[in-house]
């Protein structure tokens, strides 16, 4: 069948279609008008705020300047505190200092000053955890050549306290906080940790069977009232104190009264109790065999053979 439209008659659109197109056009025009109105309102509000701010600055110049000065002052104080903190951080002494960094002969006596007025002093800080009691760690490497031939006197390795030694047994009479000695003619360490009770007898730790003619590491660790001694990263003995440990501000003495026959390396103090992983990390790093700067400053080069000067 052929449904051709008669020639000369225009095609008529339905009334509903025309009405839909007209409604869509009106809706679009209304949306455009609303958007324009919103933009105009926003612009007017911005202009109003800017005008108000300008008026405030112009009509309240004293208040505005005062507020500006306060902001500048606050910024200056913040920067000043930051600068003071950074200066203190980079210039203050370490809380975990090396008292001897490098290797020193066991018979080369040294005194490490604790006087803050002394430019060569190495200050030792107190525990950083006073809420649970005192704590610290002493760490060093030792090499014992032989045990000596005096069956009565201890050989001094180091102590923090005083330099007054007994003529009988070579132990310090007053302060050992701590004191580390080599026992007479025995491969054992004799360690004294004084307490506030002068009559306290529970202050000694003995570590037997230490290596001879080999480097070994010793760590003396205090936490609250428990003293642990580690040899090569393994706990060797423990002492539970009955009284509060006695601390002092006296000097640190190393290898006094002839010291011991051997060598010492990297004597270091930590202001907190090292854990077992930190102690083993020090052990794995090994001794520092570089001659200590403190030994070089003494200009006592005892490691040079005198044969070269007697020929």
UniProtKB/TrEMBL annotation:
The chain crosses the membrane at residues 66-90. The keyword Transmembrane applies. Keywords: Membrane, Transmembrane, Transmembrane helix. Pfam families: Laminin_G_3. This is LamG-like jellyroll fold domain-containing protein. It comes from viral metagenome.
């Amino acid at each position: 069948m052929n449904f051709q439209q008669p020639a000369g008659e225009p095609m008529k659109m339905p009334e509903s279609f025309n009405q839909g197109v007209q409604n869509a056009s009106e809706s679009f025009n209304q949306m455009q008008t609303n958007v324009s109105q919103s933009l105009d309102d926003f612009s007017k509000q911005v202009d109003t705020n800017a005008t108000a701010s300008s008026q405030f600055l112009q009509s309240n110049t004293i208040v505005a300047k005062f507020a500006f000065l306060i902001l500048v002052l606050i910024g200056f104080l913040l920067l000043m505190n930051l600068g003071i903190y950074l200066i203190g951080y980079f210039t203050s002494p370490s809380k975990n200092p090396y008292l001897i960094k490098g290797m020193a002969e066991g018979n080369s006596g040294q005194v490490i000053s604790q006087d803050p007025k002394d430019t060569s002093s190495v200050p030792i800080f107190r525990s950083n955890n006073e809420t649970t009691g005192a704590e610290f760690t002493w760490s060093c490497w030792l090499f014992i050549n032989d045990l000596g031939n005096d069956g009565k006197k201890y050989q001094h390795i180091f102590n923090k306290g005083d330099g007054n030694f007994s003529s009988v047994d070579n132990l310090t009479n007053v302060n050992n906080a701590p004191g580390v000695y080599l026992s007479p003619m025995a491969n054992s360490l004799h360690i004294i940790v004084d307490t506030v009770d002068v009559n306290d007898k529970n202050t000694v730790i003995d570590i037997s069977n230490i290596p001879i003619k080999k480097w070994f590491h010793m760590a003396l660790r205090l936490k609250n009232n428990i003293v642990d001694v580690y040899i090569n990263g393994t706990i060797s003995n423990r002492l539970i104190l009955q009284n509060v440990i006695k601390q002092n501000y006296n000097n640190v003495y190393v290898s006094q009264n002839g010291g011991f026959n051997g060598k010492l390396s990297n004597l270091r103090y930590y202001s907190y109790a090292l854990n077992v992983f930190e102690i083993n990390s020090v052990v794995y790093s090994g001794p520092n065999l570089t001659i200590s700067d403190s030994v070089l400053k003494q200009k006592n080069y005892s490691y040079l053979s005198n044969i070269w000067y007697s020929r």
